[in-house]
Write a structure and sequence with these properties.
Blueprint: H1 2-25, E1 28-36, E2 42-49, E3 55-59, E4 64-71, E5 77-79, H2 87-92, E6 100-102, E7 108-109, E8 113-116, E9 119-122, E10 131-132, E11 145-151, E12 154-163, E13 174-182, E14 187-196, E15 200-201, E16 205-207, E17 209-210, E18 224-227, E19 231-233, E20 246-247, E21 259-260, H3 270-275, E22 283-287, E23 299-302, E24 309-314, E25 318-322, E26 345-350, E27 365-366, E28 372-380
Antiparallel strand pairs: 1-2, 2-3, 3-4, 4-5, 6-16, 7-10, 8-9, 11-12, 12-13, 13-14, 14-28, 15-27, 17-26, 18-21, 18-23, 19-20, 19-22, 22-25, 23-24, 24-28, 25-26
The structure holds beta-D-glucopyranose.
Residues 95-97, 107, 239, 283, 320, 322, 326, 348 line the site of beta-D-glucopyranose.
């Protein structure tokens, strides 16, 4: 009788030590079921936590950042990203892309078509005359494989998706890995890598809709943004870049100094009307002055009321700031909250939209033998 009891108690002790050392590091990761898709595929949720009360939940459907809990200046926690409580919410509202991993091609491709080495390719049109976010069944609608990732000072999860040659019209079998990681500095980092077996084009991003006052707690017009971007890429009426790289100075696109989203959103300016014909809005690509230096601050948003403060760092040359212009109070999200017009902002780090058709833009081509990488960090102060 003595021996089994001894074994049990030493097992208990070692379990306790494991828990304590996880606490000492301050970081932990939890894995649970998140329901099933309409065709019965099981979806998992991974929650990454640190000791400052930040919790990031990622689901294997769409590689979606489903929830991001961040304390405010008084320590009150709230979820700062829009989303749904179940898989059906994501499947029924496929065109909002809440929190999704976007691929193969973030933002628009004019006419859904491009040429590579003299051959034309056609992506399904899912945004008027253009293709958006990789066509009608992009990476946001795929089920990813997930595995916890291990790295000193970070807790993370790596998602993997293999896209078949010709999927959504894109050439090459493409293997993509996306690692979400959290550390004790309140940095949520997203690292992407991809390889192909044929020349192709690629532009990956994350489509989180942030509201620093908490998702579903009104609009973001009083939140104050700084974009370290002296230029942007003006668009035509279908939001395809004209090819010009224009200065922001003297336009409502000037966020070089801290400026509330609402300050100029209703200004009379043709670009704002292209983004949202009735009331105006932002939905443009800014050319970052950081030029791919992930060590430099690319953008900054503060909510004066809650005191939440978000900083953006990225290896990408551009960022799409979209102010939820198409939200109209009909989408019901987590905890039954309704997301109003201008109820969030996105910071989609990317190469410029329609790059495959724009000779003046940085190339989005990926060749066999090369590895595509991109890193973006959302840091909460
Ligand atoms: C696009 C918007 C679009 C939104 C949701 C953004 O990246 O730029 O025009 O409405 O995604 O689909």
């Amino acid at each position: 009788m003595m021996q089994p009891r001894f074994i049990l108690s030493s097992l208990g002790l070692s379990l306790m030590i494991a828990t304590l050392s996880a606490h000492a590091a301050g970081l932990s990761s939890e894995h649970s079921a998140f329901g099933t898709t309409a065709d019965g595929t099981a979806i998992d949720k991974y929650t990454l936590s640190n000791s400052h009360g930040v919790h990031a939940s990622i689901i294997t459907y769409g590689g979606v950042l489903q929830s991001l809990i961040v304390p405010d200046k008084n320590g009150k926690a709230d979820d700062v990203v829009l989303g749904f409580d179940d898989v059906a919410g994501y499947q029924k509202n496929g065109t909002v892309y809440f929190g999704a991993t976007i691929g193969r091609f973030g933002n628009r491709i004019a006419g859904g078509t491009f040429k590579l080495d003299g051959k034309s390719y056609q992506i399904p049109l899912n945004d008027g005359p253009n293709s958006l976010h990789g066509g009608s069944q992009g990476f946001d609608k795929r089920v990813w494989k997930a595995e916890p990732s291990k790295e000193k000072d970070w807790v993370g999860v790596t998602l993997t998706y293999v896209s078949a040659d010709g999927e959504m019209g894109f050439p090459g079998k493409l293997e993509t890995h996306v690692t979400y990681s959290l550390n004790e500095k309140n940095e949520l980092r997203i690292k992407y890598s991809a390889t192909t077996d044929k020349p192709t084009v690629l532009n990956l991003t994350n489509h989180s809709y942030f509201n620093l006052a908490g998702a579903g707690n009104g609009d973001i017009l009083k939140q104050v943004a700084t974009l370290h971007a002296s230029h942007y890429t003006p668009v035509n009426a279908t939001l395809i870049p004209t090819g010009e790289i224009a200065p922001v100075v003297g336009t409502p696109m000037d966020f070089l100094k801290p400026t509330a989203f609402g300050k100029n959103i209703k200004a009379v300016h043709p670009q704002l009307k292209f983004a949202e014909a009735k009331q105006g809005g932002y939905d443009f690509n800014w050319v970052l002055d950081t030029k791919g230096n992930v060590g430099k601050l690319a953008a900054d948003v503060r909510d004066p009321e809650s005191g939440r403060h978000l900083q953006l760092f990225t290896t990408e040359p551009g960022v799409q700031l979209y102010t939820g212009n198409f939200l109209d109070g009909t989408v019901v999200g987590k905890a039954g909250k309704v997301y109003p017009h201008w109820g969030a902002f996105t910071l989609e780090t990317q190469h410029y939209p329609d790059a495959p058709n724009q000779p003046k833009f940085l190339s989005t081509r990926l060749d066999p033998g090369k590895v595509y990488t991109q890193t973006t960090v959302f840091k909460f102060l």
